[in-house]
Each structure stands twice: as structure tokens, then as C-alpha cells.
Amino acid sequence: AVVLITHSDNPINVVPLDRAIDLLTGEVRDWAQLGNFEGQVHLYAGERSASSFVAVEGILEGASVSERVQTMPSDVGVTRAVSSDPVGLGLAASSSVAGVKTLAIVGIDGKRRTHLPEDVAVPESMLFRNLYVITRGEPGAALSSLRDYALSKSGVAIAELNSYVVEQTQQ
User: Fold this and answer.
1) What does the H/E/C string look like for the chain?
2) Maximal CA-CA distance, the chain
3) In angstroms, rounded to a whole number, what is the distance separating the alpha carbons of residues 25 and 136?
4) Other C-beta atoms within 10 Å of 55: how many?
5) pLDDT in tens, 65-87
């Protein structure tokens, strides 16, 4: 899932979805616009071609991510930057949030969620990044075995322990 992260000392724990979008587009430039915390928002995200960055553009309703965004080579870099910046806000995968706080998002249905929605009108939807395994021809025995384990009950449990969401699809 794609989430917004803040420094662990940031007292703001929850924002409505429209304000989360405003944070991403730069409409909200100071934390004081959201609560009792002051400081210019420093937005961090993966490179513009990164899957989290591309995925979030779909919910911005035609707007763009703020030109003030500081891009990092990976979600781990985003997390590191936010963990050392008290006014930092990061866009990252939920699997890369050690040492920071995930900002809760209140959807149009009034419910809190830790992830951004894939569709603003469907608040229970989850914005996520796909992981594909592409092979030349049919996968060999070793890759088939790995795939089968990853989709097994044990494999899914390991993925979920690491904040991944597993959805099985058929091709």
C-alpha cells in the first residue's frame, strides 16, 4: 500500500483525504494549516518514475505533485529523510516505514485508514504498487516453486508481517 509518513515527533496523526491531497500538491505548505504544529512541509518522494509517485498521481484529480518535492532514489531514502526531518512528509510504500509514523487518512466515508485510496470516490480502495514477475516463456521449476511458496499460506503470512498486501491474479 502507498502511505504518507511523518517524523515520529510530528503531533499531527490524522488528516482528511482532501488535505492529504493538498499536502501532496503543495496547497498546504505549512503544518500550521492542519493543526497545532508549525513548520514548512518538506515533501519527500521517490523519483518521478517510481511506482509510488506514479500511483499517487491518479488521485490528484488532474493536479501534479508539488514542484517542491525532494526526490529520493528509493522508499528507504524517503523514510530516512523523513526520520531525520521533524517537518518532513514522505510518500512511500507501507513496507518501508521503519522509524517513522504513518499518517492516518480520513476518507469521504469518515473512516480512518493508513493508506491512500486508489479511487477518491471509493475510500475503501487501496493505492498500491504492483509487483510483476516476468519470464521468458514458461517459468522453470525453481521460479514456479518460489511463486507457489510466495502465494502459500506461509508465504502470504511473511509478506503481511512485512506490511505487504498480497493479491493473487490469474493470467
Assistant:
1) CEEEEECCCCCCCEEEHHHHHHHHHCCCCEHHHCCCCCCECEEEEECCCCHHHHHHHCCCCCCCCCCCCEEECCHHHHHHHHHCCCCEEEEEEHHHCCCCEECEEECCCCCEECCCCCECCECCCCCCCCCCCCCCCCCCHHHHHHHHHHCCHHHHHHHHHCCCCCCCCCC
2) 57
3) 40
4) 19
5) 999 999 999 889 999 999 999 99
Instruction: Find out whether 89 and 41 touch, Cβ atoms under 8 Å.
Output: yes
CA distance 35 to 80: 24
Tell me, rounded to whole angstroms, the distance of Cα 92 from its chain centroid: 4
**Banded pLDDT at 163 (limits 50, 70, 90):** low
| pLDDT above 70 (res 63) | yes
What are the two backbone dihedrals, phi and then psi, of residue 67, each rounded to the nearest 5 degrees? Answer: -70, -15
101/162: higher pLDDT: 101
What is the pLDDT at residue 52? 78
The predicted model gives 92-119 an average pLDDT of 85
The three cell numbers of residue 23 are 499536502
Q: What gap in Å lies between CA 160 and CA 155, rounded to an integer?
A: 9
Query: pLDDT tens digits for 109-137?
Result: 888 888 777 666 666 666 665 666 677 88
